[in-house]
Amino acid sequence: MAFTLLSDLKAGRCSNTAEVRLLRVWEARNINKGMELMSLDMLLIDENSTVVHGTVSALLQLRFRPRMTEGSVYTLSGFDVTRSSPKYRLSDAPVAIRFNDGTEFEKLSTTSRTIPTEHFRFRPYDQILGLANTGRQLPDVMGELSAIRSTITDRIPGAQRVMLNLRLESDTTVCVSIFDSLALAFHSKLDVYGKEPRIVVVTAVNPKLVSGKLYLNGTSATRVFFDSETAVGVDALARLPSGGTDQAGSSSKVVHAQKIEPMTVSELNQFIFTADPQIIEFLCTAKVTEIQLDEGWCYIGCSTCSKKLIREETSFTCVPCNETNAVAKLKYRVILSVSDDTGAAAFLGFDEEIASLTHVLASDAAHIVGIGTNAQVDIDLPRSLANLVGSTYTFQLRLKDFNFGPNHRSFTISRIFPARDLAPKPTFSDGGEDTDQSIPQSVATGLDVGAAIVNNGADQLTDADGARMVHEAAASGEDAGEATARKKARVE
Ligand SMILES: [Zn+2]
Question: What InterPro entries does the entry give (predicted)?
């Protein structure tokens, strides 16, 4: 069988054999379809350093997956060659490879060819900026780690997100933002590594401009490498002023706090039409003008898992719990009309967030009458909900892919902070030795939690800022809902 270089591939079926190294392999999942597996994707490289994007459909992936080991060399033949997609490109090659029924992909124990073991597509800062919001390229980035900000802590519930500040060799600092399973994987890697890395390589990032600030968002193809895990990392370490030796006693770069950008209602409304679909959080301070009742204010949920129950003739079924006789509990699902000086929008709040505002559980505010298909709720609009109208809150909103575009209906609330009578920003000594107990009690209230995050404009983290953010994170560990609930109890 004839041998081919990847650079010689032409569109159509290829019966020649290529010899390639499997650089990386990852799962592409559809977040709009319950994370359904779409394909197994990979980067293949040959002896001429040509990198080609390869794809195995979800139907065929089980056949190839068991023999796929990153770093190994394979012979590849009997595959389809297609034009590269112009979107989210991971290679500079004009073609891509698609595995088919007849594809042969055999691991080689040895090879006489010299095939690179790594390949990155670093871009200068100006080019990364030019790629922002275009969705054309997913470049790689390498820099010296200057800060790790994380929302994965025991104290701050909600979205899992890690932001890494990396100083590029051009001395510009960029912010890499990774979410959910990638964020968890990053923390596991950090734990195993046992120390804070100095040089970090992040692959396949999607540059985004949000409110004028550049974020390099992680994608399903993103990998993170520390220090000497890559050859480019070894070189970069050697170029650092200290020559890559450990600086004993250097201060921690980990800052357990989050900074979520504030936006006005009109900025939010614009963002979902102008930005590409993504998962992102914002803060928005707005006044509740109405409780929308077209879809009711509650749903009948499972008392175990809170998911919506299916109404049968004389019972409720919970699919996640696999329970045909589930115990029902009323849960909030409330659409709030809100507005500020700039515009109006609809915010969707679920059980816990709404209960933290009303201080009344949905199941205490009304009762389910009847069972199964006949079940009804005995109150049209509880007073505790109606009383929210006219109040102003700071809402933390979590936007997902389906929020974007013309079918947009409402923003989902992930947290709510009371925004009335904003307390002055708490001040702390810079000693950094305060324990949780020494934080003044007045700081640990729901009011201050909102103020602390809204006011936190620290883009460049100094050591003092870092210490303060740690304190604020600790302070916010006091549950906002509980704190205000206690206040109310005292008044009554
Ligand atoms: Zn359930």
Answer: Euk_RPA1_DBD_C, NA-bd_OB-fold, Rep_factor-A_C, RFA1B/D_OB_1st
Dihedral, 217, 223, 229, 234 alpha carbons, nearest 10 = -40
Q: What is the 299 CA–ligand 1 centroid distance (Å)?
A: 13
Query: How far does the centroid of ligand 1 lie from the alpha carbon of residue 301, in Å?
Result: 8
| Fold (topology level) of 6-108 | OB fold (Dihydrolipoamide Acetyltransferase, E2P) (2.40.50)
Q: 361 alpha carbon to ligand 1 midpoint, in Å?
A: 18
DSSP code of residue 185 = H
- What's the pLDDT score for residue 419? 60
Ligand 1 centroid–CA 289 distance in Å is: 33
Fold of 265-491: OB fold (Dihydrolipoamide Acetyltransferase, E2P) (2.40.50)
Residues of the chain with pLDDT under 70: 1, 31-34, 151-160, 211, 243-260, 419-492
Q: Fold for domain 125-255? A: OB fold (Dihydrolipoamide Acetyltransferase, E2P) (2.40.50)
Query: Cα(348) to centroid of ligand 1, in Å?
Result: 22
CA of 330 to the centre of ligand 1 (A): 13
Q: Is the ipTM, as predicted for this complex, more than 0.95?
A: yes
What is the Cα–Cα distance from 75 to 107, expressed in whole angstroms?
Answer: 7
Domain residue ranges of the chain, discontinuous segments joined by +:
6-108, 125-255, 265-491
For residue 403, how far is its CA from the centre of ligand 1 (angstroms)?
A: 26
List of E strands, 220-327 = 224-226, 254-255, 280-292, 298-302, 310-311, 316-317
Largest CA distance in the chain: 86
Give pLDDT, residue 490: 19
CA of 454 to the centre of ligand 1 (A): 36
CA of 303 to the centre of ligand 1 (A): 7
Whole-number pLDDT of residue 211: 67
Interval between CA 414 and ligand 1 midpoint (Å):
21
> So what's the pLDDT on residue 128?
95
